[in-house]
Fold these 4 entries.
Entry 1:
Amino acid sequence: MVTEEEIEHVSKLMRIDVDDHKEYVEKVNMMISYFDLLDSAGVNSEEITMPEISISNLRKDEYIPFDDKLIEKLNHYKGTYVRAPKMSS
Amino acid sequence: MNLKISALEYVQEVKTGNISAEDFVAKTIERIQSIDDKLHAFLSINDEAVDQARNIDKKIKSGEKVGDCFGMPISIKDNICIKDSKTTCASKMLENFIAPYDATVITKLKQQDAIFVGKVNMDEFAMGLTTEFSAYGPSKNPWNLEHVPGGSSGGSAVSVSAFECVASLGSDTGGSVRNPASFCSTVGYKPTYGLISRYGLISYANTIEQIGPLTRTVKDTAFMLNLISGIDSNDNTTVDNKNEDYLSGIESGIEGKKIGIIKEMIGDGIDPVVLSATKDAIAKLEGLGAICEEISIDMVKYSVAAYYTISATEAGSNLARYDNIRYGYDFPLEGYEFNSYISKARRNFGPEVTRRMIIGGFVPSAGHAGKYFLKALKVKSKLTREINDAFKKFDFLISPTVPILPFKLGEKIDDPISLFLVDINTITANLTGKPAISIPFSNSNGLPIGIQLMADSMNDKSLLQAAHALEQTVNLPEVPI
């Protein structure tokens, strides 16, 4: 069983305000509770397989210039840096 | 002007000079303007579409080489980037985002002289299966305006079904192409993982999602696949399909092919009408010479829980970039502290995306990963093994695409678990990377039913042959709009 405090804690770490308890904490708890079903799948000894791509199949690690200066599209781009809000005092 | 023709018919008609691209595209735009108030398939319309079509007519007249689409009007799900046009993901978060580059699928279609008539509605960031989670309001099912069109590529399915375009591109992470295709009576295709480049598709759950076409016919899907599939240096997960021609031999039939009927997909919770349509489809396939037998895929029961765990985890990571500094909503910096600024920006996500991000933070976190995320990956591995074993015995697997009929708007929106279970038949193809197609098959009191066929990886061509064979047995009513 997941506690509502745990959900609220994770939300904070994800930088999400959960102002509406019913919409976020309660429904999320309902959804996570459904995942308890995974406990009865009997997969504890199962190996996790991952798709593998060999290095030879990756494109070359080289710089490909992009014709558009994307950084200039950032709203708070100041020519040599991007301005961010101040850290807590 | 008949807007109800297929993509291949359109190409033929324009090629032979029976119709002009300009007339067809202009009539298509007129139709969108006259009926989309009711349907809400489109989020934006390309004002230059008619001019672009006129240019293609000029190219044809002057004998210049023209791309295979001949100005065919296509709609694009609003999570696929078209350079210099809005790509909102149906989210307030990206309501002013102008894509700085074309997705690979868009580059390819532009080279073939396709025309993008507009960007279509979806559940916000593709999270949902009704379009009710769009920040701009739901789309309506053209078969019955009180019912959901399915999702998340709901706008794509509606626009094809209601003749607002000839074909559409959607994306499919857990059934998001096939589900709306089934609910709106169009063909919907989720290719083998890696067959179509995801470069320029706004990421939700990278390891399982694919772009896929929605069309009027199976042949049109094969035609679209010919245009957009193949290896791409901008997406290292793409596979080399050696320029396969998916249209050639599409009429090969399915005589002697073995088809497995997945027991877990026709069991508890299935609507009896859908079950009866599925049995009918099986009988028709047998009539064409296929051999059908039941098979049990035990892990299907756990696939929904595994899917939501994995997709939420990937979404939690992918959506971290929307912090209003790199991407996101725009407001001034003054008066905010760093963390509260980002939290405020992220308030622009809708409720479903927010919930999934919270889940995506929770299930892989220290102390919980073993119970949720790692177990979900184990279910995925075991499911893949079970499916691979099934394909040693069978050529295809069959099920209804969705176990229930299109339901009413608002009917399930407050019940996340009953929404989860709508995905149960489509998720397996995503978790295992296999190709799957939804074929319009039946209609119950005006509500469409689709049948799903699945094949082994890279057997997309034979899957389309089987789908085409089934499609030929069907005679469906015309959409009442």
Entry 2:
Amino acid sequence: MKSGSPVANAKLAERKRRGGWEWLLPFSLLLPAVGLMLALYAYPFVSSIYRSLLVKGEGALTLANYAKVRELYLRDVFFSLEISILSTAIAAVLSIALAAYLRLATGQFARLIGNVYRFPIFIPFVVVAQMMRTFLAPHGLLNIFLAQVGLLNMEAPLQLLNWKGLAFGFVWKQAPFMTLIVLSGFEMVDNTYIEAARSVGAKLPQVIIRILVPMSRATISVALILAFTSTVGTFTLPYMLIGGKVPTTVTVDIAHRVTYFGDYGVANALGTLAYVMVVFTAIYYLRYTVRRGIYEYQEG
Amino acid sequence: MVTKRWIATSVAVVAILSLLAACGPTPTPEVVKEVVKETVVVEKEVEVTKVVEVEKVVEVTPGPEPEEVSMVYITAGDVNMLALGQNVLAPDFHEMYPNVTVAVVHTGPGDAGSRLIFEKLLADKEAGKDPGDVDVAMVHQKFMAWAMEEDLLLKYADELETWQYMTAGDVKNALGTDIEGYAMPMFHSQTALAYNPDEVPEPPKSYEELVEWVKENPGKFGYNGIKGGMSGVSFTVGWIYWKSGNYDKYAVTGPFDEAEVATWEEGLKEMKEFNEYVTFTAGNVGTLDALNRGEIVMGPVWVDMFYTFMLEGKMDPKMRLIVPEPGMPGQPMYFVIPKNARHPEQAKKWVEYVTSPEVQGNIIIDRYNWYPGIDGKFVEDVAPPEAFERLYKDVSPETLSKYGKSFPIVEYFDAMLEAYEKWVTGG
């Protein structure tokens, strides 16, 4: 605080006038909440980044852990990113379609779908993983079913215990969750907009793409970010579905470094790369919503 | 709008932070703290009972009453180790010695679980805590090197009645550390190749034959790499033993020599080629499931898991096992008694009890399908014949002593895993 500026001077004068420690009051009210955030989230976050720069037995900060990541796990880092983007994208398309259906359709069937689609949200990833590994296995339920109806030769079953099955599992779990959020955005769109569009000849796809989606952009990006971040951080599904295959996800590599080597350095370096993956989406999202918020605030 | 923005912002922040929290460092010390808490209770109990005992002596008892003892048994390993201690061994032991109650504490699977026990014992020692909190512990092989170096353990085993039954090599040596007298194995578990005899009437008897077989039958052999569980790790370690021919140096005598690592390159590059013909499974259980469903016809498994699956009806009973030459690793888990144990005499009785032929035959073999910690021939008369027959049918005691290898010493082990990542899965 510069003492020269008139604002700062006024503040100082005000503080003097009131005297005592009263100026601390707002900070003390903030303290519990902010303190909790700092202790539970900020501290482990910073500490894991710091520890990614340490190698066991050496005092100085080093990039050795990142060099090892580059040497051994670079492909896995990209694989994690790709699989997360792919599954989030597929889940987004599906969830928008489903949410649009639930928003626009009426009747018994739509109500039934509206109740049923939520089930996967309540099923933990580990259960999804266990389901998928028997369902998608080469001699699993899906292949046997396809063979029974004559669509497939059991000698050459679909190989799904790889990135395809992984994407399938993620979409199965994330799409309903995204639908829930997207639908809440669609519900906010007033019927008059849809009716107006229809009265000038808009077809269903146009109603979705030009009315519902643009008017719910903020909600959809919340859904995208929540689904993407939790996909990047999921361990059980990739571990149980593809395990030691090559490539695998960063989370499996983290577990591997910790279990077999007790090597928290490289594990933290991998973790830091996972932060980087999600941080970009978050920055974009924050900037977008903050700008939009200020704009609307001034206008309103 | 401000509220909405605020909600949206906090949602984003929470989303990121929850990921961070999930990736944060494991709270290792907390578990240790729990152990300490538990033992505080134990301390109190002991003090209270002492008071009672004094009164008794004064008022009635002419002869000495057996002292009430609360013993702490801490175990690493999977939850089945906790269940075994809590539901089977501790109650049975209490029946034999009604004055001794055993509290079972569980740390966690794998070397990480043993590491916690080591850290607890070391902390006790460094704090000068004598007597300490732990009376007897169940640990993996790696633990022995750590604990022997810090001089944490009591030499107790050769005083026991059951010491005479101990014949295996890993009673004397654990991953290069001399441990004779400091540890008693409760069981041995072994890896082997499981196969479907209908599809493979003549299984390959060595790694060399296996490589040829795999090339003729692409996709029919499956394993789980090195990130999906120890059966794949074990297969890989066996591969390096085979290619290098240096088992003794890596697993028995040591010492670690960095120059050895470079000599694995060629063998591991051959493994990379081998992997082209292989189906990768998802974990130890993944291999068993794939074998049972007929997706693969051969793959490395833990013998105890294999038979337990069979008993539970999750594995076709026709499946067989073979340990290929020059061998695959297995590992024991050991009983150790800390130097500062509160009740060393009772702890010895506990170890003696679990290593007795009766417990080894009826519980270790029959119920858990482990190979006994003691020499198999002393268990033969005690174990239910069908259990004994099941366990030794494919992997005879002779095979086991010839081809049942140890895992390499710690430094080589780490180097092998990383070499695999570099030359087999990397690049």
Entry 3:
Amino acid sequence: MNDVEAIRFAQRVLGLAWADLPPRHRELLEAIGAEGWDATVRPLGTYADELLRSAGYWGLDLPARIGRDRARGLWIPELRVVLINAVHPDYEGLDRPSRENALARVAWHEWGHALSLHGATREDVAAGQKLLESLPSELADTIRLAGYLRREYTHEVVAEVYALLMVRRRRGVIGRPQWVSDQVDELIRRVVGWIQ
Amino acid sequence: MDPVRLPPGYLLPDEMTMKDVLRIDAEILASEGIDPKWPGFGKRQEETEPDSD
């Protein structure tokens, strides 16, 4: 898949993943400025910096740009857009269904992250470590070992659980998963307006 | 004007890729008795509650 094909493929998946969201979530994401999406072949920190500067913002400082260059997805609230790196090396070697699954999951993670940033309270953010420890261990490790700051844990927990709820919903499965703790369940219900 | 402060983006540990994420997802889904195979974006199955133990 060349770059043009990769962008077209990712844009198609992003559109389908957006359409798959519950209507109330789309409305909320529109209200908080996360309704746009785009796919790029550029490292996301560098691309976001360029987009921000071209829109009249001051852009990102160097550490912020470098840190986001390795991201698979990135929400830019100022521009109301979620960006996806369509050619991240992760996608090499994935068959088309797996690539579609992976891209959709990144998008759902980013939209869940936006919902969390909008709705989580200071107390929720302070409870991040405890929320993280209540996740299935391998899921918790993907957050703990990724380099996030502790104050970012709550939003990452919401984003990961939200993405998995969407993955389940795509399979026709709703309801509270067995692996979601009472505290995460309450948080998701309150912040996202889910679990169904 | 100050530099824009963005969310951190979707990051994974250095030794992990999205292939690992899909594997972990599949294990979690399978633990609930859910078919982990990606169904694509065709018509969604009728929504069901997972079986309770």
Entry 4:
Amino acid sequence: MRRALVAVICAALLVAVVAANRLIPEYDRKMRPIGTTGAIGETVRTSAFDIKVDRVTVGRSLAEKDGLGDERERTPGLFVLVWADLTGVDQPVTLDTAYLRTADGHRYDTTDAMGFGSLDETGSDPGLTRYGAIGFELPPYRLAGARLVVAPQAGENRLGPQAEVDLGLSADGARRLVAQAPAVVRYDQAVYR
Amino acid sequence: MSRPAGEHPYEPYRQRPTYLPPEYPPPPPPAPPRPPRRSRRRLWYAVALVALLPAWLGFLVWRAADQSYGKDIYAVGPVAEHDRPIDVAGTRWRLTSIAEAPRPTGSLTDPPPRGGTLVRAYLEVTPATTAAAKKIAGCTFAARDARGRVWDTADSSYVEDEDDVPDTCTPPGYSSDHIPAGRTQRVGVTFLVPADAARSLRPMVRPSSGTPYVLFG
């Protein structure tokens, strides 16, 4: 009787071990960045940087404010500029990872149309705040519900800091923004405040 | 000659009349050693488990931390006392001065942003050999304050280059050459930092990629 009980317990433990092993998360999930979420107008604080998005501008083409001539970058979709304050915490920081995550789960990385001077590339330093735009291109119908995701390290940002900011673009708000979009949206180089 | 039982002086006392009271019986023979009880063995297993579990969890945390973001790319190695030279990577380094820089007045330079201060440091760099001079040709400078915050050198737009002192470990000008062995070169680097960091700022240099920074006091 006692031996049978021990055998049953051992079998149950074996099953539990197998089940527990299946519960171990995959490497990418286990080591994914430690995200901090917030909304437009709020300062989102991470261990490496603070970011505060204050506005979103859109346009059918893109130009640098003080650029020479009338050079414009064009897109079949929409240029979306996310304007933000960025401050490093204890080291210089650049946002090597920056993308928009749409409501339906698509990811749009930063546009190549923006020259040097975008906030993600310029970055910032501890105690000094830089203000500038991060640019994206995406189809207008994917604007509603988009969230900005930024992190200081590209590729494998294992257990690193990451900020996710809800841009506050409701369906109506996004529609209005697109409808009122100017032909050209202009950006400045990121500058210290 | 034999004596009757009980009268022999070495006869066990209990076999003959004794004056000892009955409450002091003779000690029992020593018991044979018993095998450790099962419950005691289980206790040791439990103790081992309790000790190993935190050790295993610690290992997992250490491994995760080792693989994670935040490995300090500004890690500090050797520390030099203020004004004292230090020999690292076959080169002698010496901090000669560090002070707040005057506000740039030139039309080609930007003023520091509100709340920011420019700090300029001068160092002397003397490679002992040609190999050392080549090794340090790609040196990089940074600065650290008392709170452990780190800044790279300021953008060139903030630097008023009046004294023509190079800001690299290569000879002045646009030469890609190295400093001649044994020659001391002066290097000047500027940092843009918040005003509250200026007073405790300490420059540091990474002689070559992959090495820790040398921190100057």
